[in-house]
Amino acid sequence: AGAKGKRYALPNSTIHLHQAFGGAQGQAADIEIAAREIMRMQELIRGIISKHTGQSLEKITHDTDRDFYLNPQQAVEYGLVDEVLTRPPK
What family is reported (predicted)? Predict the structure, then answer.
């Protein structure tokens, strides 16, 4: 999270994208409601990531379908990070 232009990573960082996850218990109907909410939130989050990275929603959906790891330079290229810090920002 962060404002564009102020999204930083450290040189040894790992950036991790993945599906939304959560847990549910109780009656089957309640579990179904919880699952629908997780799916709704997942689509919302994917849209936000797409908007702020410039990546297509299809690419974000593909990349978050399973664990997806990026090093700091890859995160810059992807649009998740603006700068890899080697010294404190001015």
Answer: Belongs to the peptidase S14 family.
CB 57 within 8 A of CB 47: yes
Place of tokens 């379908």: 65
Please tell me the total count of domains within the chain. 2
pLDDT > 90 in the chain, percent: 87
Six token digits for residue 36: 């629908």
Same domain (yes/no): 25, 40: yes
Alpha helices by DSSP H, listed for the chain, are 28-53, 57-63, 72-78
Angle ∠(77,40,23) on CA atoms, nearest 5: 100
**The two structure tokens encoding residue 24:** 């549910």
